[in-house]
Amino acid sequence: MSDHSLWFEGIRFPEKTHNREMLREVRDNFVVKDEDTIIVTYPKSGTHWLIEIVCLIHSKGDPKWIQSVPYWDRSPWIEVKLGNKSLKDQQSPRIYTTHLPIHLFPKSFFSSKAKVIYGIRNPRDVLVSGYYFGKQMNIVKNPETLEQYIKLFLQGEVIYGSWFEHVHGWLSMRERENVLVLFYEELIKDTRSTVEKICQFLGKKLKPAETDLVLQYSSFQFMKENKMSNGIRFHDFFVTENSTLMRKGIIGDWKNHFTVAQAEAFDKIYQEKMAGYPPKLFPWE
Ligand code: A3P
């Protein structure tokens, strides 16, 4: 029986929203411009939060844009068509989003000055978030139990492939001037300084009162209530009326879900795959 997914270059994608032609086209022919900003994440790492922050930085905290235009039109996914607009309709300076691993990212980026913000989150929380998200969607066939989902995640057979490979690929870019690596955990613990870091990276100067507005309108509660940000209802592949992109918005929720055995099994693979990074690079360690 089909599980509604397609494979491209070793990565699993949902066939309802992706196709090989588009993935190939994006990698080989999408022309990235120097003034573009691209938000890159592995799914469930806080993508929508970053979109909201970047949009609000652009509007200097004015919420009109985020309250009137759905997030997928403000910052379209380059590899998937969610809204009505074509990618080419975006006005400069363009903001894009993607979950693509580096080997599928537009080649033109690597000789451009476009800015990439790469968001990372503790893979255990990514996993739990993805497990619940999968239950809200009928986009691909997802495993019933967390145990099965952990197995699939560790094998890299969930949507967008292995978290480890994604992070290795993108972290190899972290010394580049036009790549900013951010952690969801930093955003939670010190939202203001992290937002200021993003402003600096984007070359935007905000007054303290404007930064206050960015924080206010990108807060979990505000985003949850803003249907242009939590606009899950616009998609026919979300199952229930109560489906939400803003589930809990905390760090360490995995501890409420993993058994001791699951945590140990995860750790063993994590240690093997993540050996060699400088100590304290990852805030959850
Ligand atoms: P949880 O499912 O753990 O709650 P993505 O945007 O990549 O799909 O990631 C979704 C995760 O980011 C969800 O995690 C969601 O709650 C969290 N998130 C979204 N907006 C947030 C915000 N403003 N503050 C904190 N977490 C947020």
From TrEMBL:
Broad enzyme group: transferase
One GO location term (cellular component): cytoplasm
Is Kinase among this UniProt entry's keywords? Answer: no
Q: Which cellular compartments is it found in?
A: Cytoplasm
Asked if the keyword Aminoacyl-tRNA synthetase belongs to this entry, the reply reads no
Q: Which domain of life is it from?
A: Eukaryota
Q: What keywords tag this UniProt record?
A: Cytoplasm, Lipid metabolism, Transferase
What the entry lists under Pfam families is as follows:
Sulfotransfer_1
Q: What is its EC number?
A: 2.8.2.-
Q: Which InterPro entries match?
A: P-loop_NTPase, Sulfotransferase_dom
A GO MF annotation of the entry reads: sulfotransferase activity
Query: What family is this protein classified in?
Result: Belongs to the sulfotransferase 1 family.
How the protein assembles, per its UniProt entry?
A: Homodimer.
Q: What is this protein called?
A: Sulfotransferase
Report the source organism: Cavia porcellus (Guinea pig)
For this protein's source organism, the top of the classification is: Eukaryota, Metazoa, Chordata, Craniata, Vertebrata
